Amino acid sequence: MLKPQPRPAARALSVSQLFERQAARTPDAVAVEGRGRRFSYRDLDAGANRVAHALRREGLGREDLVGVALRRSPELVCALLGIWKAGCAYVPLDPAYPVERLSFMIRDSGIALLLSDGSVDGAGTRTLRAGEGWIETLPDGGDMPAPCPAAADLAYVMYTSGSTGRPKGAMITHAGLANYLCWAVDAYGLEPGGSVPVHSPLSFDLTVTSLYAPLLAGAGIELLDEGEGVDALIAALRARPRSMVKLTPSHLELLNQELSPGELAGLTNVLVIGGEQLAAEQIAPWRRQAPATRLFNEYGPTETVVGCCVHEVGPDDPRQGPIAIGKPVANMRMHVVDNSLRPLPVGVAGELCIGGVGVARGYLNRPDLTGQRFIPDPFSQRPDARLYRSGDTVRWNGVVFEYLGRTDDQVKIRGHRVEPGEVEAALGSHPKVRSCAVLACEGGAGAELVGFAVPRQGESPTPPALLEFLRGRLPAWLVPVRCLVIDAMPLTPNGKVDRGALRAMAAAGPAPGAAVPARNAGEVLVLDAFRAVFGREDIGVFDDFFDIGGRSLMAVRLMAALRAATGLELPLRSLYEHATPARLAEAIEALRWSGIGVAGADATGRTQASF
User: Which helix (H) or strand (E) element contains residue 45?
Assistant: First the structure.
């Protein structure tokens, strides 16, 4: 099995110590900008020291957990580094999550303190209120005294979907995090003076690369506004060249749709894609139009620090089908094993087990689940070494690892790990539901979740009501695109749920008759585009794009289809303002008659329209 050579001793330090070294080298360089504010490395280090002293005054110390619910801003980065300087670890709490999920995470993690800008209620937890400029209001404690966190100390706890219905918190150490980040700085060629956009949530471990690796290299990070989505990323790329951009394949497809081929060259030195299986077709425009951009496919579960395996796409890689996940990063090991944990030979598929410095401690407060997934490492000579059983099926072809799928029901939705069992538990808690199932099915934008509910006797829950119920309990990426209410759960001859029959029901869609047909030529055009993007015929002119399961990538495809059909450059935001086929058709017709947006073209040669 492939065993990479260890990297330099910098990995023996914590991330905050590595940042301090860089701040001493480039104190006046821009470290972070966002929301109209800009901090140098000196500013960022001083702000982090203020936060650390404030936490110490609150009585917090080594490995105490601090919840972080802050918008992207320079102050957020000060808070994260300050938490580490105080010896604490953080728990990211995404304000976009439903209150019920946030409350569970706060209770389950037992955070000692919450840093919040008011978007998340600590529910009785001690809270330090934070906002723009709040760092300056903290007393200046001077330089940060020892002790800083040790490499073996906890850095953060990140919650992922759980098959039992409960999210689980993976405990990541500074040793594993520093090992990955130092490797990333080298592998992705990050250097002083570069710039990297941060466009994804702190609760998504893809963000770790973009947020911290540049700060260990003397580069700057730009924190993009959460509310603007992919539009902010596209604007940032058009504004100036970037050292690195990291995103999911779903993000990449959005860029492919929105950026013209002529714009791709020179946007970024490095494009890192992770979170989902990458297909050659998704990177084809970049290979053709931006040959100088280095393309990396990065693989890794949250439990092994963001990425444990990487492949740089080269001229010999296929032009169709899946891209290999490559070879282990520094100080990580990968083993393909059978059900008895015996190594499998070249070319034979088996479960991937991951070892090395990046393996997490386990799951917070979940010793049973930790024991199942984190096992003694029979391939290591260290008695305390452990392997993480990934549940992924791979094979080693003699050169690189190839990802083949899952050994269980887990799926990836827009880069997020999804355990259908967690969604089933939430759907089954509805008082009108007797039994339920949730499946991953192929939809208009790849894998999507579909829920099936059997009502209790005498009850008649509606699909919209069930989806609204789930939105109040689950993050958006865990909410099914559709819920079907069925009379009884289909069973196989041995009494198990017949998932094949459920998939057939999902493909057939709801019973006909509910969709209101188009009433004029404009509605026919828009409705046809809706149905083509969703791959369904049961859509009517009054159906809301987002209520019927619309997602970002589908929105981009829909607007691209309408641009081609109308000759107008319809901005993506128009779908958010006119979300039904009827309203969108009216807006397009009004735009035609006004003549706005049809007279000029932008630098890409595309006509611009706005309404």
Answer: helix 41-57
